[in-house]
């Protein structure tokens, strides 16, 4: 989850830390913690380099929520792939040959 402002992160933390989900019987208690990788671009790159093509079914891919191109108050959701990245990330990913195949060696050969 990539929260874009400190205020959103604080609200999310306040709501979900130690929250009890009543739909399922469980003693588990959620805890909000900072991710090791911080920032949209760094997370995108990490995903594309490590496992970008591991999952082929779009229903099981990570999701990217982004503002609509012409109506910023409307957000769209799509499976994360190079095709849906905003520019200039899309061009950079294509130039670097991302996503890397899990079977592809560092020299680019299968």
Instruction: Identify the overall geometry.
Output: globular
The DSSP helix count reads 3
> Major sheet: order of its strands?
1-2
Please give the radius of gyration in angstroms.
17 Å
Strand content: 5-15%
Alpha-beta classification = alpha+beta
Characterize the biggest β-sheet.
2 strands, antiparallel
Helix content: 25-40%
Poorly predicted ranges: 102-110
> Residue-averaged pLDDT, rounded?
79
Give a count of the beta strands, DSSP E runs of length 2 or more. 2
Q: What is the string of helix and strand elements?
A: HHEEH
**Termini separation:** 33 Å
Write up this protein.
This protein is of the alpha+beta class and 110 residues long. The chain is built from three helices and two strands. A two-stranded antiparallel sheet has the order 1-2. A hairpin with a 7-residue loop joins strand 1 and strand 2.
Structural key phrases:
single chain; 110 residues; alpha+beta; 27% helix
């Amino acid at each position: 989850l990539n929260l874009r402002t400190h205020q959103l992160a604080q609200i999310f933390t306040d709501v979900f830390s130690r929250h009890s989900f009543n739909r399922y019987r469980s003693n588990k208690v959620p805890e909000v913690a900072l991710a090791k990788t911080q920032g949209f671009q760094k997370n995108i790159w990490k995903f594309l380099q490590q496992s970008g093509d591991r999952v082929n079914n779009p229903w099981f891919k990570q999701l990217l929520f982004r503002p609509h191109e012409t109506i910023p108050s409307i957000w769209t959701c799509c499976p994360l792939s190079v095709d849906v990245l905003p520019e200039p990330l899309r061009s950079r990913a294509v130039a670097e040959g991302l996503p890397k195949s899990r079977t592809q060696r560092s020299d680019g050969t299968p």
